[in-house]
Every structure is written in C-alpha cells, then in structure tokens.
Amino acid sequence: xxxxxxxxxxxxxxxxxxxxxxxxxxxxxxxxxxxxxxxxxxxxxxxxxxxxxxxxxxxxxxxxxxxxxxxxxxxxxxxxxxxxxxxxxxxxxxxxxxxxxxxxxxxxxxxxxxxxxxxxxxxxxxxxxxxxxxxxxxxxxxxxxxxxxxxxxxxxxxxxxxxxxxxxxxxxxxxxxxxxxxxxxxxxxxxxxxxxxxxxxxxxxxxxxxxxxxxxxxxxxxxxxxxxxxxxxxxxxxxxxxxxxxxxxxxxxxxxxxxxxxxxxxxxxxxxxxxxxxxxxxxxxx
Length: 286
Hints:
Oligomer: single chain
Shape: flat
Helix content: 55-70%
Largest sheet: none
Structural class: mainly alpha
Distance between the termini: 83 Å
Radius of gyration: 23 Å
C-alpha cells in the first residue's frame, strides 16, 4: 500500500470513529482481557487508529471508563424481559428488572467492578442501577403504584443493596474461575494506565478484580472432591476447623441461581411488608 493510500485509509478510520464505537471496543477488550488491559493505546489499536484519535471523542481514560459503565447499565433498555413500566404491578416490575441487572452483570463479569466502584454522576446514586435515567424510571414507577416517598426510597435502597452485594459476589466468583491478564488485581509493572508494559501476573491486594496465584488456580482445577474445592492448598486444618470440613460439600456447591431467586423473593417480601405496614399514598389511615 502506498503512503498516500495508507494515509487515506487511516483518515477513513478516524472519520468513522464515534464515542459509541470507542466504548463498544473498550467493553469488548475488558470482557476479553480485563479492566487493566483497556488503555487508550490498546483501545486505539483494536480500532486500527492512533491513540491520539480517541481524544477527539473522549477526554481521558477515566471518562471512557465512565462511558463503559453507562453502556453496560443501558443494556437493560435492550433486554426484552425488562419491563419499562409496572403494568402488572410493582413486584413483577422489580422482579424483571432485578433479573435484567443480573443478566448484564453476568454478561460482563470482568467489567462489573467498574459498575460497582466508579464514582457516579451524583453522590446519592447507588450501584448497580446507577444511571439517572433508570433511577428516575424506577422512582416514578413506584410512585405511580401508590408508594409514598418514604416507601419509594426504602424500596430503591433495598433493591440496589441486595443486587450490589449479591452480584459482586457472583461476578467475583466468575472472574476467579476465568482470570484475565488485565484484571484489576494483576500488576502491569507500571503505574501508567496507558502503559503497554507486559503483565507480571502478580496479584495486587485490594485490586478491582479478585485473583488467585497460578498454583492456587491449578489446585482448584484439579480438585475432584468438595473437600479439595474448599481446601485446595491444604491450608485449612480439619482439626482446627471441623465444621468447615463437615460442610465442605455445601460450601463448594454452585447455588448462585437458586440463592439469587430466593434472596430476591425475600427482599421483595420485606418491601411488601414495609409498604403494607406503612400504608399507600392517599390512604386515609386508621
């Protein structure tokens, strides 16, 4: 390809760039390689452009990561099972939304830490339903169902708290089973977020995403029994921790789906009890 042709092709790629394309490429990179892999350079390389081209559309990597969060949360809008209004009542509405949030979290387990930890646009917004648009829709929908302001706020906080706690645990378990070299708890050997330094695969305490050492992962992969899954490194003394070993089968069981459904119904029951005991908006009381 001649120099003029190469410059023309590069110019065409730059002209085709958009925020949506950049965000989609960044999310795909995080899904494949982890958060730490998504530098401005690596995103640009994925798009076939120079890194500086991205700055015409996004001001910084931090702004880009915020856009990724918005992109992930807005998958709710494309989920046909998520209700846009409580046409069948508030409980089916919240039930469907909760499962929609779980679907996007499970679709992007390596990106979900961003949803949980990125500073929201307003300090009162709670993850994982952290888009102002979705929060407004939730609050307004509950109000149309006759919830008082107190009941709306109780429901909003209860709903988000349950989802955040549960989905952080579930997606962390998924990330541990499928570690990526760019997960947030791996060292890149550089403090520069745009660095292309090779990963060392050394775990960093307190990183965004959990990880295990290669030896730990190998021990878990080769585990054949519940006892080996609970104590793959023979670090838990059965004499000192007999109950842990006795309950090993239950502790090692994969019950995420069942426990999510059970916990969700219990959370909705608490909301229903609170609403019933405090009365709906417009009730005369007594």
